[in-house]
Amino acid sequence: MTRLTIAPVTRIEGHAQVRIDLDEKGEVSSAHFNVVELRGFEKFLIGAAIEEAPRITPRICGICPTSHHVAAARATDQIFGAQPPQTGRMLRELLMAGQFIHSHALHFFMLAAPDFLLGDAAPEERNVIGLAKRSPEIAKKAIEVRKLGQRITEAVGGKPIHPSNAIPGGMSRPLTTDQQQTLLQSAKAGLMIAEEGWEIAKGMMDGFDPSFGAVETAFMGMSENGTHAISGGEVQIVGKDGKPLGSFTGEDYLHHVREYSEDWSYLKFCKLASGEYYRVGPLARLNIVERMGTPKADAALAEYRKVFERFSQAALAYNVARYVEFLSACERTVELLEDPGITGTDVRTRTGGVVQRRGVGIIEAPRGTLIHDYSVDENGIIERCNLIVATCQNNYAMDRGVEDVARKVIKNGELTEEASNRIETVIRAYDPCISCATHAIGRMPMRIEVCRPDGRGGTKVMIREVN
Questions:
Q1: Of the four listed, 178, 282, 433, 439, which is most buried by Cβ atoms within 10 Å?
Q2: Binding site as annotated, residues for Mg(2+)
Q3: Domain definitions of the chain by residue range
């Protein structure tokens, strides 16, 4: 058997590899998305005070710390029986909108765009540096709009990278009028950039191949009475045909979701209790909701559905769906900052002691549904912790998508640069965050391995490492 390895997979957050096994004829016999990092947060949170969870969990990742911060804070709200007042909820939503702006802009412009704007350029050019050389205005605008997300995180969350202001019962401090006005000016400029960028995003829909990375699954995502939601409402589940399969809001997620492992990866997998596989994230959310809830994003959603229809299984649709959400987040940010209530001073409901021993915080992170589940003792010390992140829930689809593309692009046992990039493209469509799904110890590069029989009863292994 011959093994081909793509290592590491490039332009994703974290380190992973693709392993491809070939048969005697040089054809793909199997292929897997392989993650070899170790995750430890669920263990070393045990013994910590529950009110520390919103401060500890943002360290899971530097790309999506806000998602973990808010999910943990929502869990602590339940444990202390202290639901945030209106202004506190608005500030958390603004903080989450900033997370979507920062994360989606990063992925769309800097990680995914080279696949579509630079095509099969040389590897040293097929990246954000190459994009800056080819289209400097796009690169400048991408950096500018990402700054908006970071400014929101700093002003509302307290720090630009690992926010700390979301606490049990709300937020630790209000937003000042000066901060509001500064952010509003930046948000309006960011919205203009998002509108201009939609023309680029629409170009991705031209001639797309719906069979690229083909996999059929159910979908899961949050909505509020049919409207796109990231921090409220119910989590909805729809089947492969788009028909509703159920919904949940809190600890009853265990009636719907099952975690499991495979021997080729440290990254967990998820399936529904029925045994059906599912996906989360931008494509899932757009498959579930009726509307985005903001005018420009609703118009973009209508254009998106002219191509991908009301319900889509296409992996590459993730990239365009992500942009519709990015546009919506920019609009919603302006709406929140124009609301006089955003600078209200009633931002926190005071807490007493522990009122219930378990809390489950569920939000929509940029990559998909995020669940933080904590159980504590009578003093609020964490006894059990379970974190289910989007990348684990999309793991099956990425794994199967890798094999689908590998079978199409690897011919005569040869892993060309073009073939490698095609395989990585289907992974990048999901925008996996390996840092969230695992926790690395040391340097672990991405590897792609391809194995084939050597004709003498042994195995020949071809390895490609990407640092």
A1: 282
A2: 42, 387, 439
A3: 2-34+399-466
